[in-house]
Specification:
This protein is mainly β and 184 residues long. It folds into two domains: 83 residues, Immunoglobulin-like (Sandwich), CATH 2.60.40; 92 residues, Immunoglobulins (Immunoglobulin-like, Sandwich), CATH 2.60.40.10. Helix content is 0%, strand content 51%. It contains no helices and 17 strands. The strands form four sheets. Strands 10, 12, 13, 15, 16 and 17 form a six-stranded mixed sheet that branches. Strands 3, 4, 6, 7 and 8 form a five-stranded antiparallel sheet that branches. A hairpin with a 3-residue loop joins strand 15 and strand 16. It is flat, with a radius of gyration of 18 Å. The protein starts with a strand and ends with a strand. It comes from Dromas ardeola.
């Protein structure tokens, strides 16, 4: 059957002009290659390192913004296509938020974990990201927490948050420092 491939952005979130990010494509196979497409146009071809390929964007401009996806090939026709990850390039106008986790970074399976994204702005909403996922795990409004109930090994990973406001235009913060959650 066709292999399953995934795509995600690392670090997640909107990037500033001049900033950098990496588009990660992975597959359960390790003998083919990926073609990266942006807005339907072929951009780059990359061989696999193990079961993944990484496409770096550095010194980002508006030209780097767009809808990216990966095609997996082993010499002949395309065997699989990933979902699409949207890369956004915007100026950061808001202060950097701080992500905290209660009761802590290392929790027992079955516990409840609370993520809080704190930003010095009265009306900002924030996205909570988990590295490896194509979409934000949660949107939270100002002074709201994101609670993960009965955590399990699948909740482990590297979390971050990014905030924005909607006034006349959309304004973004930088992405917070990451937090690693371990479930034992």
């Amino acid at each position: 059957g066709a292999p399953t491939i995934s795509i995600f952005q690392k670090p997640a979130g909107v990037i500033p002009p001049g900033g950098s990010t990496t588009i990660c494509c992975s597959c359960q196979r390790d003998n083919g290659y990926f073609k990266l497409y942006k807005n339907g146009h072929h951009v780059r071809t990359l061989e696999l390192h193990g079961s993944k390929a990484e496409f770096s964007i550095s010194n980002a401009t508006q030209n780097d913004a767009g809808a990216y996806n990966c095609h997996y090939l082993e010499g002949g026709p395309v065997l699989a296509r990933s979902e699409t990850v949207e890369i956004q390039v915007q100026e950061f106008c808001l202060p950097e938020p701080v992500l905290s986790v209660l009761p802590g970074h290392d929790v027992a399976a079955g516990a409840d974990v609370v993520f809080r994204c704190t930003i010095a702005h009265p009306k900002a909403g924030c996205f909570v990201y988990l590295e490896g996922l194509i979409e934000a795990v949660k949107f939270i409004s100002k002074d709201e927490d994101y609670t993960l109930s009965h955590v399990h090994k699948g909740n482990e990973g590297r979390y971050s948050c990014q905030c924005f406001t909607r006034n006349a235009s959309l304004q973004w913060s930088a992405v917070s420092k990451t937090l690693d959650l371990a479930v034992r």
